[in-house]
Design goal:
Blueprint lengths: L2 H25 L3 E3 L2 E3 L3 E2 L4 E8 L6 H21 L7 E8 L5 H11 L5 E6 L1 H14 L3 E4 L11 E2 L5 H16 L5 E7 L2 H17 L2 E8 L7 H9 L4 E5 L2 H13 L5 E4 L15 H4 L3 E5 L10 H13 L7 H22 L2 E2 L1 H9 L3 E2 L8 E2 L16 E5 L7 E3 L7 H5 L3
Parallel strand pairs: 2-14, 4-5, 4-6, 6-7, 7-8, 9-10, 9-11, 11-12, 12-13
Antiparallel strand pairs: 1-2, 3-4, 13-17, 15-16, 17-18
Length: 424
């Protein structure tokens, strides 16, 4: 072989090796490192696991929902890391502003994170999470959804963490009919005109059929609308006695103020993300929130030290976020991080911290005890969407500004007949 031929052969080999290196970078550091199977977001040498968070840090949902919920996750994993991490791995969180409800920004930020992280610890918002579900499937990326849209139960890599919106609506009207004893009442719903609202609407329609409600109207609005008078007047004129509201806190305020202006005061029933303690900071809203208004939800009251999980949460707050005020979304972020921890711990114990290994851990995790902060959640292993709905129970709360998180229960935790029978 001549010199030129030899150089050409070496160049071909070099380019082939270079292409393999580039391909390796694009698909993650796949391999068996230190006894662990890994691909993305795990550094065995430095013992770190990197998780992503996509949440609103700006816009109307940032202060009432995104920031406190994310802080709950941060505080939980600060406690985990201070106590040895997950089998010695420190958990690192990389947070991006998804500017909810901007679905395009969600995709941009997902793509910015996708090759850096093992899984997503929080994807906040229904339309935003829908925007990345196909990408997550392609990437085998497990996504902990900070949304309770029941439709996401059909997605293989989405992790629901609580009772879906659809079942919250069904439980609300089970309470009206079977606990309050108001048979065949006139009812209505006002809902955000997107995937989030559609899940509430689906539950409402199922409740109408299941409990023999008299449907007085189904009114949609767009997130951020300043004028909802037409929708409110339609419900008033139709005589709706109970009105379910699928909204976020800023729109809840607009609807309540509009109803007050036209002298309409039905029994409002709010989807769980529709209320925030920050609303009580507006004096004009206080009488509207504390009269004829229920909030769907779950969980222990902040400070209930009969729950071991609450004791630990309060201790972690004292250590890592002493300025944190009682907040239901912080509590949710902290509590449901226990499910993420359990999945990662199971994967680490099996020495498989690849994305497929994390999915395998999730699909076989079974029941996760949330320390009493919330009821236990259970995932089945069949792959049937019904097995991906972790809970079906609800509690009903009313607003009480004297309580730590400004709510107090008016019902025990229960599962209505419609929610128990719903299929996904």
């Amino acid at each position: 072989m001549g010199l030129k031929a030899l150089l050409r052969a070496r160049a071909v080999v070099f380019l082939a090796l270079l292409s393999l290196v580039i391909a390796g970078c694009a698909s993650g550091n796949t391999g068996n490192n230190g006894g662990y199977k890994t691909d993305f977001g795990v550094d065995v040498a430095n013992k770190t696991i990197t998780l992503g968070i996509l949440t609103p840090l700006s816009g109307a949902a940032a202060n009432p929902i995104g920031k406190p919920l994310t802080r709950g996750i941060e505080v939980f994993f600060a406690g985990v890391n201070a106590n040895g991490g997950i089998d010695g791995f420190e958990v690192r969180l990389v947070t991006k502003d998804n500017k909810y409800p901007d679905t395009q920004e969600q995709v941009v930020q997902y793509n910015a994170l996708r090759n850096q992280i093992l899984m997503i610890a929080e994807s906040l918002g229904t339309p935003t999470t829908f925007a990345i579900k196909d990408l997550a499937t392609k990437d085998h990326m497990l996504v902990a959804a900070a949304t309770l849209s029941s439709a996401l139960a059909r997605e293989k890599y989405l992790v629901l963490e609580g009772t879906p919106y659809r079942l919250q609506v069904e439980n609300a009207f089970d309470y009206v009919v079977n606990k309050v004893g108001d048979k065949a009442p006139k009812t209505g719903i006002i809902y955000q005109n997107d995937d989030y609202g559609q899940d509430g609407l689906t539950g409402y329609k199922e409740a109408v059929a299941a409990y023999g409600l008299q449907d007085a109207g189904q009114q949609a609005f767009n997130a951020g609308d300043k004028d909802v008078s037409a929708q409110v007047l339609a419900l008033k004129n139709a005589g709706a006695k109970y009105v379910f509201m699928t909204s976020i806190p800023s729109d809840t305020a607009t609807i309540l103020v509009t109803a007050a202006k036209v002298g309409y005061s039905p029994q409002w029933i709010l989807q769980s993300p529709a209320y925030s303690t920050l609303l009580l900071g507006v004096p004009a809203l206080v009488p509207l929130l504390t009269h004829n208004l229920w909030v769907m939800g779950q969980g222990a009251i902040w400070g209930d030290t009969s729950k071991p999980g609450m004791v630990k949460m309060l201790a972690d707050v004292q250590k890592y976020a002493p300025d944190q005020k009682p907040d239901g979304f912080f509590e949710a972020g902290y509590a449901y991080s226990q499910a993420i921890y359990a999945i990662l711990k199971k994967a680490a114990d099996s020495k498989d911290l690849s994305r497929d290994g994390v999915y395998k851990a999730f699909s076989t995790i079974g029941t996760v005890d949330l320390g009493g902060i919330y009821p236990p959640i259970t995932y089945g292993s069949s792959g049937n969407p019904n097995d991906r709905v972790p809970s079906r129970d609800s509690q009903i709360f009313e607003i009480d500004p004297t309580q730590p998180t400004t709510v107090k229960p008016v019902s025990d935790d229960f599962t209505g007949t419609a929610a128990a029978a719903s299929n996904f």
